[in-house]
Predict the 3D structure of the following.
Amino acid sequence: MEFTNIKCTSLDKNFDEFEYCRLKSVNRTFKYISLKVNLYKLPVTKVKVNFALLKRFSGYKPFLYNITADACKILKYPKSNPVFGFFHSFFRDYSNMNHTCPFDHDLIVDKVSVEFINTQFTKVLPFPLGDYQFYSNWIADDISRAEVRVYGTLS
């Protein structure tokens, strides 16, 4: 797996804004992604997340997963939704989004390495080769607040 791009979009600048959202290439073999979103209306007590995995076939098309989940409930009871758990495991250990609601601080995902994602995509749940987009829509108080898209190639 190789990261090719990351795009972060704030859909409500009064609610949140991305301080940074970057793909960093340290050398030819080590790349990581990091992002920080500043939250302006705290505490955040009601969060839903829509995760989708898309594969490129003449444009990005839905592939395997597209779920919307109550993040607060699942963070409290992690075994209640194993698919959400799989996607959350991509960044859980690299972020401060590893506790249940309320969130009363800025959200950070720091240095998620391509090696970790590669293990998830090849050993934990093998995927076919190709170009992928991991899409997430973050919904607070039933309003879409932010989107994060991570692009990668599995070869």
Summary: Residues 2-154 form a domain with the Ganglioside M2 Activator Protein; Chain: A, fold (CATH 2.70.220.10).
